Amino acid sequence: MPPGTVGGVSASDSLPQVEADIVTCRLCPRLVGWREQVAIERRASFKDQEYWGRPVPGFGDPRARILVVGLAPAAHGGNRTGRVFTGDRSGDWLYRAMFRAGLASQPTSVDRFDGLTLHNAYVSAAVRCAPPANKPLPEERAACAPFLARELALLTEVRVIVCLGSFAYEAMGAQLGVRPRPKFGHASEVELRDGRVLLCSFHPSQQNTFTGKLTEAMLDAVFERAVVLAGG
């Protein structure tokens, strides 16, 4: 490990610095073009709002014992509001569940100025820009991986990583060198050698919540388990 590094990142690194580096990133031309196009064209219901239109950083408690990782910002959710899982129905489901688990100060997340705070939890994503059709390319996930690595190194209290969907699970498995990698399944757990646990959940996307593949009770059970695994 080079001098001046701790846990694989610079000893002078910080979560504010990671955030600053994320929001100015332009590494992936396809994602840059899409996020900015969406921010200009806008959805009719949000036509009077100014879109964020940039990569979306993580959000939460720097002393978190629970890290929640999703896929990527929604085009008219995080890409509009500037905060991960905010302003869309997936975020509505997520923060309601986190509120019921005692991890969020309120059950709603409308914009980054709405007063929401997280306790003992931090929310991030495998990819930081809204992707076309909600499908990042492998090279785009790889380009974002260093941001997640830096967050993991700086969130030193994390004991449980809640992976929302198989994409997030694969990203975290690659990040942490999980080999062999057990098959993804809702509520499945993978204990790492250092004692941390990957805890899986179906993603709270409309595709899953509208069809009943994921219910509020199922999501609540995941976060109740996360709280237990994190030590209360």
Task: Give your account of this protein's structure.
The chain is α/β, with parallel strands linked by helices. It has a single domain (11-229), classed as Uracil-DNA Glycosylase, subunit E. It has eight helices and eight strands, in the order ββααββααβαβαββαα. It has helices spanning 15-23, 29-41, 78-81, 89-100, 138-154, 166-176, 206-209, 216-229; strands spanning 5-6, 9-10, 59-60, 66-70, 121-125, 160-164, 189-191, 197-201. The strands form two sheets. It has a six-stranded mixed β-sheet with strand order 3-5-4-6-8-7. A hairpin with a 2-residue loop joins strand 1 and strand 2 (9-10). The longest helix has 17 residues, at 138-154. The radius of gyration is 17 Å and the shape is globular. Residues 1-7 have low confidence and may be disordered.
